[in-house]
Design goal:
Elements lengths: L11 E2 L3 E5 L5 H9 L15 H16 L4 E7 L2 E12 L4 E8 L8 H16 L4 E7 L3 H9 L3 E2 L11 E7 H9 L1
Parallel strand pairs: 5-6
Antiparallel strand pairs: 1-2, 2-3, 3-4, 4-5, 6-8, 7-8
Helix pairs in contact: 1-2
Bound molecules: coenzyme A.
Length: 183
């Protein structure tokens, strides 16, 4: 079996959504997603400050994609960008990645991110052949924790994020994911 080789960018279609590569026409949307206080209220990393930093972020994502270290997608609903999803800190050697996602608030609780996560996990485990996908999320981020638990991510109580003490770590192994989708 030949697994994903990071040549063509893996654009994905779901029932309602297009999950696609970001380009410089998307600067305003990426800026909103990565600077908004509301969207990032549980995210402790530094906010993007302006369009120049946003452009640098898109360039960095493309560079890290070439290094097989990151896939940053935008999520489109009816031709409007509504969010983003990322697989980052990818290690093909260790068959490992971390997932992160952001949605514009007007689209919360409509099952949008479930539709995305479903496909991105299938892509990560089946096409990329990862064994482990983890998520770091703030201990009070109920929407995020609910989403992770829906997909059977397991809380890792003994582990801590060294950089952000309020983050908690959730882990999903390929074998559990494949069992859950086959049942
Ligand atoms: C986390 C986030 C992506 C969830 O997206 P979403 O599209 O609203 O999630 P869904 O509608 O697919 O819901 C997924 C599950 O979580 C539950 N859920 C979502 N928001 C919830 C909330 N506020 N309270 C309780 N449960 C919630 C849903 O009920 C659903 O479970 P169900 O299908 O069993 O009912 C969204 O809230 C968001 O972008 N938050 C800001 C950014 C962020 O904090 N990202 C996570 C850290 S990187």
């Amino acid at each position: 079996m030949i697994f994903f080789n990071f040549k063509n960018f893996p654009n994905i279609k779901t029932e309602r959504l297009a999950i696609r590569q970001a380009n410089f026409d998307d600067i305003e949307d990426v800026f909103e997603l990565r600077s908004s206080e509301e969207i990032n209220k549980f995210v402790e990393t530094k906010r993007i400050q302006n369009f120049d930093e946003t452009k640098d972020f898109i360039i960095l994502c493309n560079e890290l994609y070439k290094k097989k270290n990151r896939i940053f997608w935008l999520i489109e609903f009816e031709n409007i960008v509504i969010g983003s999803v990322i697989l980052h800190r990818i290690s093909l050697e260790n068959k490992y990645a971390e997932i992160g996602c952001k949605l514009k608030p007007e689209f919360y609780r409509k099952g949008m991110m479930s539709e995305v996560v479903d496909e991105v996990l299938k892509f990560g485990f089946k096409e990329m052949d990862l064994n482990t996908i983890e998520a770091y999320t703030h201990k009070n981020n109920i929407p995020s924790i609910s989403l992770l638990e829906k997909y059977n991510f397991i809380f890792q109580p003994e582990r801590r994020d060294e950089n952000f003490k309020n983050n908690r770590i959730f882990k999903l192994e390929k074998k559990y994911f494949l069992t859950s989708i086959n049942n």
